[in-house]
Amino acid sequence: MAKDIEILKNENMNIADKIYIFDTTLRDGEQTPGVALTVDEKIQIARKLNNLGVDKIEVGFPASSKGELESAKKIRAEDLDSTLVGLSRSLSSDIDAVLDADLGYIHTFIGTSPLHRDYKLKKSKEEIIQSAVESVEYAKDHGLTVEFSAEDATRTEKDYLFEVFSEVVDAGADFLDVPDTVGVLTPIFTHELITDIKNNFKTPISVHFHNDFGLATANTLTAIECGADQAHVTVNGLGERTGNCSLEEIVMTLKSVYGVDLGIDTTRLYSLSQLVGRLTGVKMPVNKPIVGDNAFAHESGIHVHGILNNSFTYEPMSPEMVGHSRRIVLGKHTGANALKSKLKEYHIELDEEQFCKVFDEIKSLGDSGRCVTDDDLIAIAITELSSARETPIVIKGLSISMGANVSPTATVKLEIDGVEKETASTGVGPIDASLTAIRELIQDTMEIELEEYNLAAINGGTDALAEVFVITSDPDGNQSTGRSTNQDIVMASILAILDSINKLLLIKRSI
């Protein structure tokens, strides 16, 4: 990677030798509105996180319910390599629940900002410090590794925040966590705050940043640049309100942009994201960095031409690095190189004339507002491959009229060997009416019977391409296939029938 991306490091950064990834998907991630995970689902996610190689997994809030306690116990029984963490308030009863779950690491918190002191806890500054210190001491006395969070730290007076941190450090806290509880930090203030904390405390610093203004990842990276030792993250950025700092964004930015080795198996990121998305029911936007459907998708002809020569021209990392895959999307911006690459992928060989017709069809569909799928392309290309190379009969016009309790009428204009003919016919439906009109127009040239008719919508949606396959025959027993794809079912049917008729006519004239 270092040969393809210029690693961003300079002497002003104070990046720690070891950066810990603390995943809180099973705790803060589950607090995403509308999300509730079963014990088995939590175990599946915990296993995936463990196999990914995260340092710490916050398994839940054991004191909050019997279910949470049992869930924590069952995850503990998995004997995972990652350190398992339990959340607790600064209450001995909460700490006892973490101990009951047989967890060795506790994340204990208490609100420190004026808002939390006055409106939630209704406690004085002195009472807050006393609760914080007593909880840390109690946890340490019971052999736990303690991470202390000053909830709403970024809206707490700095001198008071430092006083709280100083007291809990003296009480034995192993990590000091700085939560940006409502996501109000910006990178410049993050830099100032984390730098000041690092200059005043030797205890490792952890950061837990929320994404209310879309700055959680940027603020977390800034904190790491300033010496933060640990980042709290969630898979897919799940969490309260707009979520937390995204696991995949932090891991890949540190790896690809900063050149930091976290010991994470990044090839498992996409499958982890997919699992969490399915279990929580929270689907990622297509433009979600790293794991979104469009993270490695390209349509622009210029971009596709670049990545076909060297993927790093328009990708900062390879999709294989995260277990994802590259997609070349077809549409109005598609270039010839992209189309040729797609056709090669499906082993479809077209001559120059056929290629140009397929290319024009793709562009036309793109201009109509459609995103052309691979299935669309395959159908269009196969239609072109199987179409008659000579077309003595060509459709020049089609009009369908229908009404309640009235048989549909099809008015069809054909050019037959250079001569235009037009007629109108009725039928049980617009396709049947059109076929009747075609039979009438070509009766002086040949007779045909429709032996087989198959219609398929290539993809879902009311604008899906219709693919029609037919077999027609003549009185001499000759049979021929016809195929067409079109957004209009009636037109697709007529074109397929005419394709088959033209082939029969060429057979007849060659005898």
Mind explaining what this structure looks like?
There is one protein chain. Helix 1 packs parallel to helix 2, helix 1 runs antiparallel to helix 10 and helix 15 runs parallel beside helix 16. The chain has an eight-stranded parallel beta barrel with strand order 1-2-3-4-5-6-7-8, surrounded by nine helices. A three-stranded antiparallel beta sheet has the order 11-12-13. A three-stranded antiparallel beta sheet has the order 14-15-16. The chain is an alpha/beta fold. It is elongated and about 105 Å long. It has three domains: 261 residues, TIM Barrel, CATH 3.20.20.70; 90 residues, no CATH class; 118 residues, 2-Layer Sandwich (Double Stranded RNA Binding Domain), CATH 3.30.160. Helix content is 40%, strand content 20%. It is built from 16 helices and 16 strands. Strand 1, helix 1 and strand 2 form a beta-alpha-beta unit. The longest helix has 22 residues.
Order the strands across the largest sheet as they lie in space: 1-2-3-4-5-6-7-8
- Detail the poorly predicted runs: none
Tell me, briefly, the overall form: elongated
User: Which CATH class of the largest domain applies here?
Assistant: Alpha Beta
CATH superfamily of the largest domain: Aldolase class I
Radius of gyration (CA) equals: 33 Å
Give the N-to-C terminal Cα separation.
65 Å
> In total, how many beta strands?
16
Secondary structure: helix percent: 25-40%
Q: Which architecture of the largest domain would the CATH scheme give at its second level?
A: Alpha-Beta Barrel
Structural class: alpha/beta
Biggest beta sheet summary: 8 strands, parallel, barrel
Percentage beta strand: 15-25%
Per the CATH scheme, the topology name of the largest domain is TIM Barrel
Helix count from the secondary structure assignment: 16
Average pLDDT rating: 91
